[in-house]
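Researcher: I'd like a candidate sequence for this fold, 448 residues long. If you have to choose between options at a position, lean toward the conservative one.
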C-alpha cells in the first residue's frame, strides 16, 4: 500500500485535487486516463485520452462512458463494482466515430461510506499487436541504420564495407533523401577512425565567406566580427571523418583550398600566417554529376580527387521491394514511442504507397509515416491517413503512351518518358518504345 505524509491532505487541498489529477495524468506517457461517477458519466478526460481516442474533452465530459466508448469485449465501467480492481485486461475499444483500438486496461473502483459504488478511475494504453508481416525478412539487410533487400543497395553496402578499410576518398551520388549522410556515417563507423569525430556540413547552405570560415577556421581580427580565433571543421575532425554534402555547390575559390587539403593534408586558416596539418578522411556527396559540372563550375582535378571510389545510391522508386520494408520499419519506431499503434495497412493504401513515385525518397516516406501517426487513429493505416497528394495521385488517370517513333530529340524523349511515368523505369521504357535495358543505358548517358 502506498504511503503519504499526514500533511498530504492539507497540501492537496491547497493545490487543488483537480490540478493534482491533471498533472499526474500528464506524467503518464502514451496512456489515456478518465474518471466516471457512479452512473458511469465521464467527469475527467485527460489529454492522453484525447490523443488516444481522438475525442476532445468538451465533447465527452458529462456523457455516459458507454456513449463515448464501445467495446467488443463487453466493457462496462459500472461493472467494476463487482471487481474493485482490474489490471492488464486486453480490450478492443471503439471511440465515438472512430475505429477499434486494441488496448490494455487497468481500472480502480471507489466506494462510499455505505459501500456503494461511487465511480472509478480508468487507464487505457494502446497495444501493438503482432502482425503477419515481419519487420525484417531473410533476404533483407540491416547495416548501420540502412535497411534494404534491394540488390543495388546491397551491392553499395558491400562497397562500403570494403572501402571503409582503406583511406580512399569516396563520392556518394544520389537524389535528395536517399540517405547519403547515413552512408557516409556507416563508412566512418566501419573504418578505424570510428572512435574519432564524424562531422558533416552542407556546402549549399552557407555563403562562400562563412563556408570558408566554417571549414578552415579563422584567426582573431581576420575580418570584421572575428573577435576570437575559430577552429574550423577540418581541425575539429582531426583523426576522424569530414562529410561534405552537396559538394558540387562548393564555390570555385574554395575548391583550390580543398584540393590542397586532399593532396598535402594542410591548409591555412582565414587570416592566418602558418599552415595547419590535419589527418582527416573526406567523404563527399552530391545529387549532381561532377563530370557535367566541371565545365567552368567544378575543377576537373578536384573531381578526380574526390571521385576515387564512387558509390551510387538508387532512388526509392527504383527500390520497389524496399518500400514495404522501410514503411514497416518507420511504423515500428512510431509504435514504440507514439500514442497510436498501427498493426495493418489497408490494401488500397498499400497499393497507393507502392505505386507512388517518391520524389523525396526515403526521407519523404519517413515523413508520410509521421503524418499518418499525427492525423490518424486506429490500428489500421488507411487512405485517409495519407497526405493529400496521395489521394490526388490515386485519382489521376494513367499517362498515355508517347507516340513519337520518328523523333530525333532522344534526350527530350527520355526526359518526357520519365516525367510521364512518374519515374518508373519499366513504364518509362514502354512509353519511349524501348526495352528496359536500352532505356536504362540511354538514361545514364543523358544523366537522368
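Model: Candidate sequence:
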Amino acid at each position: 500500500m502506498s504511503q503519504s505524509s499526514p500533511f498530504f491532505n492539507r497540501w492537496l487541498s491547497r493545490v487543488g485535487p483537480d490540478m493534482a489529477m491533471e498533472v499526474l495524468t500528464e506524467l503518464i506517457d502514451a496512456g489515456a486516463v478518465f474518471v466516471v461517477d457512479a452512473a458511469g458519466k465521464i467527469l475527467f478526460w485527460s489529454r492522453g485520452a484525447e490523443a488516444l481516442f481522438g475525442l476532445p474533452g468538451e465533447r465527452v465530459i458529462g456523457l455516459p462512458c458507454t456513449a463515448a466508448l464501445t467495446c467488443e469485449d463487453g466493457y462496462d465501467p459500472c461493472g467494476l463494482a463487482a471487481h474493485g480492481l482490474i489490471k492488464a485486461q486486453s480490450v478492443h475499444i471503439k471511440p465515438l466515430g472512430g475505429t477499434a483500438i486494441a488496448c490494455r486496461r487497468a481500472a480502480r473502483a471507489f466506494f462510499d461510506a455505505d459501500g456503494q459504488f461511487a465511480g472509478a478511475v480508468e487507464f487505457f494504453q494502446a497495444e501493438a499487436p503482432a502482425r503477419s508481416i515481419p519487420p525484417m525478412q531473410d533476404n533483407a539487410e540491416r547495416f548501420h541504420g540502412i535497411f534494404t533487400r534491394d540488390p543495388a543497395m546491397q551491392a553499395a553496402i558491400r562497397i562500403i564495407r570494403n572501402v571503409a578499410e582503406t583511406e580512399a576518398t569516396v563520392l556518394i551520388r544520389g537524389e535528395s533523401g536517399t540517405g547519403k549522410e547515413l552512408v557516409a556515417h556507416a563508412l566512418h563507423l566501419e573504418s578505424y577512425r570510428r572512435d574519432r569525430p564524424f562531422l558533416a556540413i552542407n556546402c549549399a547552405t552557407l555563403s562562400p565567406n562563412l563556408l570558408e570560415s566554417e571549414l578552415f577556421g579563422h584567426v582573431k581580427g581576420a575580418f570584421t566580427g572575428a573577435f576570437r580565433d575559430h577552429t574550423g571543421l577540418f581541425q575539429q575532425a582531426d583523426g576522424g571523418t569530414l562529410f561534405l554534402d552537396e559538394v558540387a555547390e562548393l564555390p570555385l575559390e574554395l575548391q583550390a583550398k580543398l584540393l590542397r587539403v586532399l593532396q598535402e593534408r594542410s591548409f591555412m586558416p582565414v587570416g592566418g600566417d602558418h599552415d595547419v596539418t590535419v589527418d582527416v578522411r573526406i567523404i563527399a556527396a552530391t545529387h549532381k554529376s561532377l563530370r557535367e559540372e566541371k565545365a567552368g563550375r567544378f575543377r576537373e582535378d578536384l573531381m578526380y580527387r574526390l571521385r576515387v571510389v564512387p558509390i551510387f545510391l538508387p532512388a526509392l522508386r527504383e527500390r520497389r521491394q524496399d518500400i514495404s520494408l522501410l514503411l514497416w520499419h518507420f511504423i515500428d519506431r512510431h509504435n514504440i514511442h507514439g500514442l497510436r499503434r498501427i498493426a495493418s495497412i489497408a490494401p488500397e493504401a498499400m497499393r497507393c504507397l507502392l505505386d507512388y513515385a517518391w520524389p523525396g525518397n526515403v526521407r519523404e516516406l519517413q515523413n508520410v509515416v509521421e503524418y499518418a501517426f499525427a492525423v490518424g487513429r486506429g490500428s489500421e493505416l488507411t487512405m485517409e491517413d495519407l497526405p493529400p497528394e496521395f489521394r490526388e495521385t490515386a485519382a489521376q488517370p494513367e499517362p498515355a503512351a508517347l507516340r513519337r517513333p520518328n523523333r530525333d530529340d532522344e534526350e527530350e524523349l527520355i526526359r518526357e518518358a520519365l516525367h510521364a511515368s512518374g519515374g518508373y523505369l519499366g513504364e518509362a521504357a514502354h512509353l519511349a518504345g524501348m526495352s528496359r535495358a536500352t532505356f536504362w543505358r540511354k538514361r545514364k548517358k543523358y544523366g537522368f
